[in-house]
Design a protein that fits this description.
Layout: E1 11-22, E2 27-29, E3 32-34, E4 37-47, E5 52-57, H1 67-82, H2 90-100, H3 105-123, H4 127-130, E6 138-140, E7 142-145, H5 150-162, E8 167-171, H6 177-190, E9 196-200, H7 210-218, E10 225-226, H8 234-243, E11 248-250, H9 257-265, E12 271-274, H10 276-279, H11 282-294, E13 298-301, H12 308-319, E14 324-328, H13 332-335, E15 348-349, E16 352-354, H14 367-373, E17 374-378
Parallel strand pairs: 7-8, 8-9, 9-10, 10-11, 11-12, 12-13, 13-14
Antiparallel strand pairs: 1-4, 1-17, 2-3, 4-5, 6-16, 15-16
The structure holds magnesium ion (MG).
Amino acid sequence: MNPIRIPSMKITGVTVYVTRIPVLIKRRHGSGDIEGTVQNAILKLETDAGISGWGDAAPWAVFTGTIEANAAALNVYLRPILLGADPTRIEQLLDKANHAIVGHPEAKAAMEMALFDIVGQASGLPVAELLGGRCCDDLPLSFSVADPDFDRDMEMVQRLYAEGLRLFKMKTGFAGHAADLKRMERFRKEIPADAELRIDYNQGMAAYDAIRQLRDVEAFHPTFIEQPVPGHQRAALAEITRALDTPILADESVFTTTDALAVASQRIADMVSVKIMKHGGMMAGRKVSAICEAAGLACYGGDMFETGIAHLAGTHMIAATPNISLGCEFYQATYFLERDLLAEPFPVRNGRVIVPTAPGLGIKVDEDRVRHYAVETLR
Ligand code: MG
């Protein structure tokens, strides 16, 4: 037996690139719109062993946080924790980060994935193996039907169905109940029945009339209905969960493990969306999933407007976490961004995301492209 030997390493460089990448399609949600560009804080950690690791913080101001705050979290508050540190001490460094700055889970997720990327490359192991080992080699991919131009969206759905994709999540709650029902009806009429329709309100529904409206939605047999009411309205969400036959999925209601404990123990929802950008990394996402699993709640692999770097971290996490069983929504690198930041395309085949087998995150970053999209560089 060959024990894995990791060279002793120190972090010698911390660079934060604030990128602005044009996007190909518009997105509308109950909580707000995305068009034009997305902004990410891309983290590069360098070591004295010659190994570099990459992270991606993908905040959304109306959901998790702002790009300005997350760039500052990495540059001002996390930089002194990382410089000179041993990158293998991931839990210890995250603990220090949590004591240095509250919140900012996107910055902490970026830091964690860059550390895992380094340790994976140093040990020769993919991140999924560092987390306990993969339980699958690919994941079903979900595409979000969120274009205000529904004709264009339906063309996209047809194209993706032909490519093998079977999970479609329709964003609702921004154009009125009648318009939502029309879109669902058209989807069910035009797309073969083996396509799963999932519905996500992104908090866009008023709680007082939610149950009656959601009973109309149930006629289209969605797999689940996600976050109909605002995240903090937990009593209303619990009432909806009890009233409907369709499973209810909590997203904006669950950021922390404490949130997960409340939702799981009081059965406020039937399912939870796990996102590294909400929870602050892969290990935090696995803790949320474990709490849900104890109460019989299944988890979904959600994401924010990420580059392929964060998609890779999410892919490794889900592959190593059987209770995140409802697929993943890592479509942005392939179908949303003008160009992703990975040197090779984020691996999607036949509607499934392939879990990388190379060490670390598994696909190199194209640093020239990061610099091309950078509007600010902090080092
Ligand atoms: Mg959601």
